[in-house]
Each structure stands twice: as C-alpha cells, then as structure tokens.
Design brief:
Structural class: alpha/beta
Distance between the termini: 82 Å
Strand order of the largest sheet: 2-1-3-13-6
CATH architecture of the largest domain: 3-Layer(aba) Sandwich
CATH topology of the largest domain: D-Maltodextrin-Binding Protein, domain 2
Number of strands: 14
Largest sheet: 5 strands, mixed
Shape: globular
Helix content: 25-40%
C-alpha cells in the first residue's frame, strides 16, 4: 500500500512539473502565440509594448473635443466622428472614438471646467496647463508614467526629450507623469506680419519696417481703395475678435495667437503677459512695465485714427474680413496657409498674402517673444481601463508617414482626435531650407530620408513641385498653383511663405521666465487677468485714458501681484 501511495505522489509531482513548464512556455519572450498587446491586457506591464500595436478586439474611448463650427472642410458625408482621421485610427489601432462633449474654442474652457467641477471627465481630452494642475490636485487623472515608458514611440520620446527636460517637467507632479505633453514648434510662438503684397504693389508701397511705416501703410489701405471697388470699406490692420481673442499671447497661452498685436508690442520692447527681467534686472510682469504703456498709447492712437479694425471689440470672427478681401494686415504665426489665407486665395486667386518679420524695434531688430515647447496636454481619466490608448493614438501619426497621408482640404488636422503637435523645435525652418535645396537642385528628396523626426518632410519634398511653379526662388501667389492640389498647397504655402521670415531674419528671442502658475496664481490670477484684459481694451479703444494704466499697475500689485512676483522670483532665483 505504501508503494502505491509513493507512485501516486510521484505521478502528482510529474504533473505539476509539466503544468509549470507549459506555463513558462506561454510566458516566454520567444512565445509566438497571442501577445499582451493583441490580447488587450492591462498596460501596467514592466516590459515595453508595441507603440503601434493594434488591439485584437475593438476598444472604445470617449473624448472631449474642440471643434470649430465654422470649419466646413469635411467632405459630404463625413462628420467629426466619421472622417479620414477616425477611420485611420479604427483601421490601424481598432480604437473607436466617441464624444462625451464637443465645443468651439471659445466654449471649450467652460466645458472642461464643468467636467472638472462635476468630476465627470471623458476618458481623455486635450487641456492646457491650468486645467492640468486642477485635475492633478483633484486626483482625477491616471498616472501615465508606465504608459510613457512602455508605449511612447521612439520618435515621440526623441522629440519630448529633446526639449532639455522642459516638456516632461511640465507634466511631472510628485515624480509621476500625469499627462502626455505635446511639443510645439518654436515658430508657433513667433507672430509675424501677414500683409496683402498686391495691395502694397498697387499703391506703390513697401512692407512697413517701423511703427511709423506701419501707420502710413495702414492709412493707405484704409483711404486709397486698394481693392478697387470704389468704396471706403477696407481695414488697415485686423485685431482680435470678441470673446476668445487676445491682444497678445501670455505665459500660460504663449503660442498661436491670431490677430493680436504681439509684434507691435515687441517693437516697443514690450512683452505684456510674459514674465521678463525689468530695468533693475529683477523678475517683473511685462504688462506692468512702462514699455507696455508706451505701446498701448500708440495702439490707442492708431485705433482712434481708424487704422485698426473699428469693429475689433464686437467682431465675432476676425478671419471674415481677411477671407473676404477687406483686410490688409494681421499678425499671426507661420501656418496661416492652413487658416484664413487658404480661404482668401480660394475667394480671390490674386490675393497675395506674404509674411514679414516686422515691424522692427528702435534698434532695427525683430525681437519677438517665444513660447514654451509644451502648452497642450492629453490627460486620461483615472480608472479608464486602457490608459495607453491615447498614447497609441498619438503614436499613430508617426506610423508609415500616417499624418502625411491625410488631406487637410478634406478636414483639417484639428479633426484628429486628441491630436497634439509633435515636432522638433526647428521643424519649420529646417523644412524651408530643405525645400530650397530640392527646388534649387542641389539635393534630392531621398537625401533627407533619415530625418524621420520631421514627420512631414518626406511628403513636403516629394510634393512641392506639384503646386510650386518657377521661378522657384520667388514666393508671390502668382508663382503657385493651388488648384493643382489644395491640400498640398495649404502646407507648402504656410512653410515657404510663413516660414521664410524665420529663416532669413536675425531675431533676438525673448522667452518668459516661467510658463506655469505659481501657488497664489491659482486663486488670484483669473481676476488679475480679467482686470488687465478689460483695462487694456478700454485704453486701446479710447474708453479709458492712458493714465489709467498707472492705476491698473497699482491695483494689480495690491491685489496679489506683488506676492506673485515674489513667487516667480523664488522660482527663477531659488
């Protein structure tokens, strides 16, 4: 009987060894069966996963998304939930996108604030630095440290980590990565002058180099009928629209300000909205410095003279007079071919919008403020079962030139769910130089094949001659063929016209000393900024004396500005 029991024990031990061996085989790195990615397993594995891996079964992600209600670029039958971008995500990743809410740019902050306050977040959405900090403090977000480590594509990691730590620092709280940072071009923070070159040519004028020149050209645009319709209906300089328009970018929204007066302020050495060193070398808020008052005085004079859009404070969309051919100048970043210029040229093929790094300051320099590399972030709701999905959706833009295959004339890139910009800081300038080499015949497109981090460069070089006619060294609208392919032209014109001043102009960049909120700002900044915006608008429009600037500065300091300045000083000079 003892022998029988011994045999049973021996057989049981052999069975355990077999089961253990099978288990180890299934978990072996060399196992060719279904991997963790395709099996939709959780993303907290220590082993790096496939950044581009497709889920074996469909998964859903519900997002909050900004949608421009005036954007009519989607083809018939397409919607914000069913278009070339969402179909690409479904095909490549097996991710189905749903909307928790959508809103225009003006209403998006309110929608996000309501979601935070009610603790009813979508699975993921794109937010700014203020909302990011609020959600972190409310413990509403998933820790994405492992997601970034295991799922961020090599190219995205290269771009993020190429900011000398700035991008990751902006999303790291208590040692944890709480959001996925975008990395924008340096060019997005530089606001140049876009001007109707055909109007200048018709009136025998040159692009205005100084503030005095700017006034003369704007006056001519208003009074000398540059559009030739016999009516006094043209605008010298467009201004910011009501609602979400800003007269200048600021340290929390440091890039992509459309129709503001950023370049006019910088011509006076003024950097309102940014933290800079004052005359004494100590940190100061640019909106409180004498140079800003000087710029406001000039802007108020120009507005009173009718040189700036008289409807600036009530106009709902500053793009409209640009598109309809009634405005002669506005200030914005390089990418306006994606924006109003594209529509303007479709309405009038002779509308020759050109970009200049003007006006210059008293030393003859163009000295723009520049923004932070990361101002937009993808956040993921705490508890969402696939926190890696947003990262994979961002990776997808780098899969086999995926983004380059999209046609922006069939829905702009804003329709890509959770899209963040990822680009080396010099992408615009680098692309201008590369296209020049290819057009000149000194290099071939394949010479740039190794530059994979410049994700649109290959298509830019391949397609440029489809829309650019000779002479290749001139960029007037008459040398382009937009109708050959409007999608290709939109980007090519933005690069070669909007980007050229950034290459050909020696600039003295002015960064903000900080780009994030200090502790006291969380309770005081909204009211301080509202006071600033209202007072400056009144000054420019003549509803308040320029002397009220001094009252504003005193009130700003009393209402927390001095303490906030000390907080900034402690950060800059620890």
């Amino acid at each position: 009987m003892n022998k029988i029991n011994q045999v049973k024990v021996l057989l049981f031990m052999i069975m355990l060894l077999v089961i253990s061996a099978c288990s180890n085989a299934n978990n072996s790195p060399n196992n060719t069966g279904t991997n963790a990615e395709s099996a939709n397993t959780p993303s907290n594995s220590e082993a790096p996963q496939d950044p581009f891996g497709k889920y074996a079964e469909p998964i859903k992600i519900s997002i909050g998304m900004e949608i421009d209600p005036t954007d009519k670029s989607l083809p018939a039958g397409d919607t914000p939930l069913d278009n070339q971008y969402t179909r690409n995500i479904k095909e490549n990743l097996n991710i189905e996108v749903e909307h928790t809410f959508t809103a225009s740019g003006a209403n998006m902050p309110q929608k996000i604030s309501m979601a935070i306050a009610s603790n009813d977040l979508p699975d993921a959405m794109v937010v700014g630095p203020i909302e990011l900090r609020q959600m972190v403090e409310a413990d509403q977000l998933a820790d994405l440290t492992d997601v970034y480590k295991n799922y961020a594509s090599p190219t995205i990691k290269e771009i993020i980590e190429g900011t000398d730590g700035a991008a990751l620092k902006s999303v790291t709280f208590d040692g944890k990565i709480m959001a996925i940072p975008g990395v924008q071009l340096k060019a997005d923070g530089i606001h140049t002058m876009w001007i109707r070159q055909d109007w200048l040519d018709k009136l025998g004028l040159e692009a205005p180099k100084t503030i005095e020149d700017l006034e003369k050209v704007a006056k001519a645009f208003v009074e000398q009928d540059p559009d030739g319709n016999g009516k006094a209906d043209t605008i010298g300089i467009s201004g910011p629209q009501s609602g979400d328009g800003k007269m200048y970018a600021n340290f929390l929204e440091s890039k992509n300000n459309l129709y503001g007066f950023d370049a006019i302020f910088s011509a006076f050495g003024a950097y309102p909205g940014f933290w800079v060193n004052g005359a004494d070398g100590k940190p100061a808020y640019g909106s409180t410095l004498p140079e800003t008052k000087e710029a406001l005085v000039k802007l108020s004079e120009m507005y009173a003279a009718g040189l700036i859009d008289p409807e600036m404070a009530v106009r709902k969309d500053s793009k409209e007079p640009v598109v309809s051919g009634k405005s002669g100048m506005f200030f914005a970043p390089w990418w306006m071919g994606y924006g109003p210029v594209s529509d303007a040229v479709q309405n009038d093929p002779k509308a020759n919008w050109q970009s200049y790094a003007l006006p210059l300051n008293k030393d003859g320099k163009f000295s723009p403020h520049i923004g932070t590399p990361s101002s937009d972030f993808v956040v993921v709701r705490k508890g969402y079962e696939h926190p890696e999905a947003p990262m994979k959706m961002l990776n997808n833009l780098f899969k086999n030139e995926s983004e380059a295959t999209f046609d922006p004339s069939k829905g702009g890139p804003g329709f890509y769910p959770l899209r963040l910009v990822y680009a080396p800081s010099d992408e615009t300038e680098y692309t201008v130089k590369a296209i020049r080499e290819v057009l000149a015949g000194t290099k071939k497109p394949e010479d740039y094949a190794a530059d994979v981090s410049y994700k649109l460069l290959a298509s830019d070089l391949r397609d440029i001659k489809k829309v650019k006619n000779e002479p290749y060294d001139q960029m007037g609208i008459e040398t382009w063929n937009p109708i050959a392919d409007m999608g290709i032209w939109t980007r090519a014109y933005s690069i070669m016209v909007g980007g050229t001043p950034l290459v050909d102009t020696s600039m003295e960049d002015v960064p903000s000393l900080i780009y994030e909120q200090t502790p006291l700002m969380e309770s005081r900044w909204v009211n301080l900024k509202k006071m600033e915006d209202e007072m400056f608008l009144k000054i420019v429009m003549g509803a308040a004396s320029v002397d009220t600037f001094d009252t504003f500065v005193a009130d700003w300091k009393k209402q927390g500005g001095d303490q906030i300045t000390q907080e900034v000083t402690d950060i800059v000079n620890p």
